[in-house]
Write a structure and sequence with these properties.
Elements: E1 4-7, H1 13-33, E2 40-44, H2 49-60, H3 65-75, H4 80-83, E3 98-103, E4 108-113
Parallel strand pairs: 1-2, 2-3
Antiparallel strand pairs: 3-4
Helix pairs in contact: 2-3
């Protein structure tokens, strides 16, 4: 099962390989349990886990994806560049209905359910 990686930060190819392995180690238990093939993983470099948890909370409130990202980036302008990558991720290319957001900053991930409300 090939994961799709979307990079929010510019990483050298060498580093990308390490990051992919680290991220996959973290999420593999979940992807196996949920029987997810080809999960989509957005890799953040400096964005702290706390902000990614805010993302989950806002999405859970069934807010439109674009609105969630807009709010998040305006509240956390320091991470605007990295967070803006989430604009590229919409229901169209999240085939599995779930998006994994992994941050190097905490070596942790959140799983964001991409419900039908996301447009």
């Amino acid at each position: 099962s090939e994961a799709t990686f979307i990079y929010a930060a510019r990483l050298q190819n060498e580093k990308k390989k390490q990051v992919q392995e680290a991220a996959l180690r973290k999420i593999s238990g979940v992807t196996r349990a949920l029987n997810l093939n080809a999960p989509e993983v957005v890799v953040f470099s400096t964005v702290p886990l706390s902000i990614l948890l805010q993302l989950c909370e806002k999405v859970a409130m069934e807010t439109k994806w674009q609105d969630v990202i807009r709010t998040l980036t305006s509240q956390n302008s320091r991470y605007r560049d990295e967070l803006s990558v989430l604009n590229e991720v919409s229901r169209n290319n999240a085939r599995t209905g779930v998006l994994f957001c992994y941050t190097l900053h905490n070596d942790a991930f959140v799983m964001v359910p991409l419900g039908p409300s996301i447009q």
